[in-house]
Amino acid sequence: MAEQIIFYAFSCLLIIAALGVVVSRNPINAVMSLVLCFVTSAAIWLLLEAEFLAMILVLVYVGAVMVLFVFVVMMQDIESATLSARFAPNVWPGLVVGAISLAELLVVVWVRREGLPIAAVPEPHPADYSNTLELGKILYTQYVYAFELAAFLLLLAIVAAIVLTMRERPGLKKQNISQQVSVRKEDRVRVVKMEPESDA
C-alpha cells in the first residue's frame, strides 16, 4: 500500500514537472523542470527495481546532458518574441502528438486494469540479484555495436551544440590568441600623474 502511494505521488509530481517544461516561458525554468522530470523518473525506476537505469538517468542526463542544455540555452540569446513566432505554427502538430501520447498511456492503463499477460507485474528478485551485471552482459555482447553508435551520436550532438554557440552574431567578441600574446604593458597600463588635492 505504501509503495502505491509513493508511486502515485511521484507520478503526479512527474506530470506537473512535464507540464512545467511545456508551459514555461523562461527556457531556464523549462530546463529545471526537465531536471525534476528526470529525478522523479529515476525515483519511479527505483520502485521498479531498475537501479542501474535510475543511476544512469541521474548521473548522465541530470549531471551531464542537462548541463549542456543549460549552456546552449544561455548562449543562444533566445528572445521571447522570436520564440513565440516559431512556436505558433507548431501548435497543432504538437497537440496531435500530445493526443496520440495520451491515447497510448490510456491504452496501457486499460491493459494493466484488465490484467492481460503482456502487462503482468514481474516477480521481485532476490536480494543478491544484480540487474547492473545482467544488463552489462547483454549491453557489451549482444548490443555492443548499438552502444558504440549511441556514444558516437552523443559526441556528434556535443559538437553540434558547440557549433551553434559559435555562429556569427552582432556584437560578438572573439578571442585573438596572437594579439593577446603580443600585447605590451604600454598598451594595457597607462600611468597618470595627478596633482594632490587639498581638503580645504
Q: How are the SSEs ordered, and which strands pair?
A:
Blueprint: H1 2-23, H2 27-47, H3 51-76, H4 80-87, H5 91-114, H6 131-139, H7 144-165, H8 177-181, H9 185-188
Helix pairs in contact: 1-2, 2-3, 3-7
What is this entry, summarized?
The chain is an all-alpha fold and 200 residues long. The protein has helices at 2-23, 27-47, 51-76, 80-87, 91-114, 131-139, 144-165, 177-181, 185-188. The mean pLDDT is 78.
Structure commentary:
By secondary structure, the chain is mainly alpha-helical. The protein has three domains: about 1-80, NADH-ubiquinone/plastoquinone oxidoreductase chain 6, subunit NuoJ (Four Helix Bundle (Hemerythrin (Met), subunit A), Up-down Bundle); about 90-120; about 130-165. Helix content is about 70%, strand content about 0%. The chain has nine helices and no strands. The chain has helices spanning about 1-25, 25-45, 50-75, 80-85, 90-115, 130-140, 145-165, 175-180, 185-190. Helix 1 (about 1-25) runs antiparallel to helix 2 (about 25-45). The longest helix has 26 residues, at about 50-75. The N and C termini lie far apart (about 85 Å). The relative contact order is 0.06. The mean pLDDT is about 80.
Features:
mainly alpha; 3 domains; Four Helix Bundle (Hemerythrin (Met), subunit A); 200 residues; elongated; single chain
Percent strand = under 5%
Order of helices and strands: HHHHHHHHH
Q: Mean pLDDT across all residues, rounded?
A: 78
Which term fits the overall shape? elongated
The main pleated sheet reads as: none
Low-pLDDT residue spans:
none
User: Can you identify the CATH superfamily of the largest domain?
Assistant: NADH-ubiquinone/plastoquinone oxidoreductase chain 6, subunit NuoJ
How many domains is the backbone divided into?
3
Q: What is the helical fraction, as a range of percent?
A: over 70%
Rg calculated over all Cα atoms: 26 Å
How many runs of DSSP E, i.e. beta strands? 0
